[in-house]
Design brief:
By secondary structure, this protein is mostly helical. It is 67% helix and 0% strand. It contains six helices and no strands. The chain is globular. The two termini are 18 Å apart.
Length: 123
């Protein structure tokens, strides 16, 4: 996913079709709250382990699926969803800033895709 992600293309796809395509979409609307929680917990665990996990197709598609069906997500799970996205985004931006401060261009460039993916989720 990470090598294939292009922020501009993804944003254009959102505007063009009105129906954003998710490769491995989860049918959030048909799930019970407990099933939603279990699925979201997979993404939470992955991002807690490494904030770069957003580049994993499984994790990214879970987050996109929830955001696509935001009106079907219970409030407590919506809070959890936004928390994991914001926490991962903040951690990734902090890591990028640290690398910029240390003038490590190669490592800094590695943050581009994860930062753009989090930005897309917040769009």
């Amino acid at each position: 996913m990470a090598s294939e992600f292009d922020l501009q293309e993804e944003l254009q796809a959102l505007q063009d079709s009105g129906k954003y395509s998710i490769d491995h979409e989860h049918d959030i609307r048909s799930m019970q709250p407990g099933e939603m929680d279990a699925l979201l917990q997979q993404a939470v665990r992955a991002i807690a382990e490494s904030f770069e996990a957003v580049t994993s197709p499984d994790t990214f598609d879970i987050l996109c699926s929830f955001l696509k069906c935001v009106d079907a997500v219970p409030g407590i799970l919506m809070n959890k969803l936004l928390d994991v996205i914001m926490s991962g985004f903040a951690a990734e931006v902090d890591a990028a800033a640290c690398d910029i401060n240390h003038e490590d261009q190669e490592t800094c460039a590695a943050h581009k895709v994860p930062v753009e993916m989090y930005a897309f989720l917040l769009n």
